[in-house]
Amino acid sequence: KAPTALSGLVTQPELRTLLVDKLGEFQVQQSDAFFRRVSVSSSSGLTLEDVVKVLTPFGDKDHLSPLSSAAGRAGLPTSPRGPGLASSSPLAPLHLTTESKLRHVYYPRTFELDTLCRDIISPRSLSAYRRPLSPHTMSPRTWDHARALQRATLTMDIRAVLQVIERQGQLDEHVEEMKALLPATTPLEAIFGTLDAGKNGYVSDRDLWNFAQRMGHLPFTSIFGLILEIQNGRAHDSSVIRGQLSLKEVGVLVHPRGTLEHELMDASVSDQEARSTQYIMRFTEPCPGCGMRIQRDADSSGCPSVTCPVCHKVFHCVTLMSDRDIGSNMSHDPTNTDHLFYAPLTNTECDALYRIIEASAASADEIEGLRKQLMLTHSSSLIADTFNAISGGRHYFTFVDLRRALFEYKSWSSERILQLVWHRYARNGDHVSLESFARQLQPVMGRA
After folding, report:
1. Which of 373, 375, 421, 414 lies closest to 171 in space, CA to CA?
2. How far is the C-alpha of 278 from the C-alpha of 275, rounded, in Å?
3. What's the pLDDT score for residue 171?
4. CB count in 10 Å sphere of residue 382
């Protein structure tokens, strides 16, 4: 900015207008302090000599004119870090909407100053900014200013993590919409049998990929990432095998979250338990009083009322369990559902199953990309810092804490997305630990 024509000086209000209002690089206090520091020749304003001295690098005794200095600066390539404390780059891919660009923070607790500040601050003062925050190495004023900068940058980092959490909920919501296309009457055993083409007792990543190739096209890496994502949410199950899906894991894949079928499949630790659960769900009814599963051993045409043996509540039950096939009048084992594994799926059911696999694989790919981006562009302590911010310093946080944190950091989500996020992190519990929190935010690929 050239000096005014009347006084030949750049006054303090003019400098404030340039640095604060137009460029937005300084605060008012910083602009005034800068003015007092460089106005050596005259206290009423900056002279041409003062401006030339500021723009001349340390060690360069050949003072340049303002025009040649400006031309030289215009020819320099723009620094990838840009002005301010740190570089600015969007965290999420195209699908993730952000209110403001997220900034990268470099730890441990160092602050990078822009080029202008580095030129006017002595090496000794500059080293104070580069040292880790400590009240023993900084003056009280510098300490307070550095702590304020740390809180601001940490807030932006926490917001980046919360945006990833919110995006996980959005992707889970899309997958749940695809699950609604599958008819509720489709037996899980028939779905498993269709995917397990070799009748090996498990669905391999190649089986899943072959089914996807018949219905459409999915990369093999996406199929493998989908299996890892399903197994990542089953930390309680020690029987998982990488690259394979068991019956219970296929149930978690296709059953909508929040339903009793999904909860029972998610809680099962073996396929035998999953099959027993399927039998109970198929041939019993819950008591409206205590929830105990009830079945009849006689026809309900005469008297549909039954009495719960636990709470003694009387209600209507029409679920008949018999050891006789009414259609053929042939005796059979009602608990044997092996024939369902060979039942073919209709074209509509196959199309709905493919849509679930396709949406789940795409969701797993994007979530894994967000996890890697967090780890590459932020501090390794960011997950723990975010957990402490949500929990308030406790060793766990609740659903209310998560809602408050998302609202406080301006990540407003629908109630449905909040419920899906909570289910992802807490499963069926009432709180989330640091281990469970980190498990959903750390990359799955390459994890031991």
Report:
1. 421
2. 5
3. 94
4. 20
Answering whether pTM is above 0.70, one says no
Q: What angle do CA 82, 86, 87 make, to 5 degrees?
A: 55
What span, in angstroms and rounded, lies between the C-alpha atoms of 63 and 280?
88
Q: Please say whether the beta carbons of 95 and 125 come within 8 A.
A: no
Tokens found for residue 35: 């003015």
Between CA 76 and CA 247 the distance in angstroms is 62
Calculate Rg over the CA atoms of the chain. 32
Nearest to 368 by CA among 445, 432, 277: 445
Residue 267 and residue 280 in contact, taking contact as beta carbons nearer than 8 Å: no
Structure tokens at 31: 């602009």
Is 406:441 a contact under the CB 8 Å cutoff? Answer: no
DSSP run (H or E) holding 158: helix 140-179
β-partners of residue 432 are 397
Task: Give the tokens for residue 288.
Answer: 């409206």
Question: Angle between the 205-215 and 188-195 helix axes, to the nearest 10 degrees?
Answer: 90
Q: ∠ at Cα 343 (326, 355), nearest 5°?
A: 130
**50: Cβ–Cβ under 8 A, 6 or more apart, which residues?**
38, 39, 40, 41
- Distance separating alpha carbons of residues 160 and 377, to the nearest angstrom: 11
Q: Which residue has the higher pLDDT, 120 or 26?
A: 26
Interval 183-211: pLDDT, tens: 988 999 999 999 998 899 999 999 999 99
